[in-house]
Amino acid sequence: MPSSGHRLREVEHHPLLAENDACDPSSSSSCEADAAGGVWFIRDGCGMVCAVVTWLLVVYADFVVMFVMLLPSGDFWYSLVNGAVFNCLALLALSSHLRTMLTDPGAVPKGNATKEYMESLQLKPGEVIYKCPKCCCIKPERAHHCSICKRCIRKMDHHCPWVNNCVGEKNQRFFVLFTMYIALASVHALVLCGLQFIACVRGQWTECSDFSPPVTVILLVFLCLEGLLFFTFTAVMFGTQIHSICNDETEIERLKSEKPTWERRLRWEGMKSVFGGPPSLLWMNPFVGFRFRRLHTRPRRGGPELSV
After folding, report:
1. How far is CA 124 from the centre of its chain?
2. Strand 137-139 to 130-132 pairing
3. Rounded to an integer, what is the distance from CA 10 to the centroid of its chain?
4. Catalytic residue ranges
5. ∠ CA 131-133-137 to the nearest 5 degrees?
6. How far apart are CA 298 and CA 308, in angstroms?
């Protein structure tokens, strides 16, 4: 690893405003609407497909739970309570998914590596700063460049195609809530599937569903597989995220075995910094801080852009 002095010389030998290192506006065609003029949204084909698939799978699970298992049931309170619980979990999961996808994860302003900005930093003699040659920005401590978002992200944990966004400083909370609510909804769906199979076997598959027995079996089996896969994936991700927060170490920093040069916020201090404030039920609420914005599209080079 080069020394700090060597890294400083690299910065000195690569002028901040060199022509071959200038930002290319067309390179952000798959990126977000910047600053106050728009809403953060990554125009990545794979990520958008994964996000749509996620929503479709949740809608499918809700369809099977409501129309295959609960509504045909003769127990009113059983159907009401379980329907309310599952739909609340699904709503909270999808809301957390939207907040994760449409929240700026902590992007560093693009193209701020200018002489004027450097002078405004009032750097001490010999102080080392780092410049990202890909997005022409001054990289803060713990920031990493994402090749999909085409931006440097503060405290970047990883880029998740299922939420079509990076998980970083400003949206990690919503990603944790998304994984938690999906895991809980998956467990609930699996329990309901088990009870439904028992009821159908006892009733000889005659009155347990409005669908034919073969269709009912196919729908329930597919929901069981979906629930198992979703629970396994989201439970592991939830545990990994909580571990990272409590140790104040992102996944990238852990994989690169980066030695901490920052003051770590361990356990509850780390949780407070991510979820905001002391422990409360507000930690579980994905709507905290949400402000309704009227969106419209405006033409731009590279495709339409969502803007306020």
Report:
1. 37
2. antiparallel
3. 34
4. 160
5. 45
6. 10
Sign of the dihedral through C-alpha 128, 130, 275, 241: negative
For residue 305, the cross-strand partners are: 298
Q: Which residue is it, tokens 């900005």?
A: 117
Which of 96, 111, 211, 204 is closest to 160 using CA atoms?
A: 96
Q: Are 30 and 301 in contact (CB under 8 A)?
A: no
Place of tokens 């033409």: 299
User: What is the spatial distance between Cα 65 and Cα 50, in angstroms, rounded to a whole number?
Assistant: 23
What separation in angstroms does the CA of 10 have from each of 1, 14, 51? 13, 6, 40
Q: Which backbone phi and psi does 132 adopt, to 5 degrees?
A: -85, 120
- How far apart are the C-alpha atoms of 63 and 86, rounded to whole Å? 11
Do the Cβ atoms of 98 and 183 come closer than 8 Å?
no
Q: Which run of H or E residues covers position 251?
A: helix 251-255
Instruction: State the Cα–Cα distance between residues 256 and 270, nearest whole angstrom.
Output: 21
CB neighbour class for 140 (10 Å; exposed up to 12, middle 13-18, buried from 19)? middle
Q: Contact at 8 Å (CB) between 106 and 137?
A: no
Count how many Cα atoms sit within 13 Å of the Cα of residue 306 in the half-sphere of its side chain: 13
The answer to whether residues 220 and 192 touch, using CB atoms and an 8 Å cutoff, is: no
Mean pLDDT in the chain? 80
Of 185, 183, 175, which Cα lies nearest the Cα of 101?
A: 175
**Greatest alpha-carbon span in the chain:** 82
128-141 pLDDT tens trace = 777 788 888 888 88
5 closest CA partner among 118, 121, 124, 127: 127
Whether the pTM exceeds 0.85: the reply is: no
Does residue 282 carry a pLDDT above 80? yes
Instruction: Find out whether 18 and 114 touch, Cβ atoms under 8 Å.
Output: no
Taking residues 171-195, report their average pLDDT.
Answer: 96
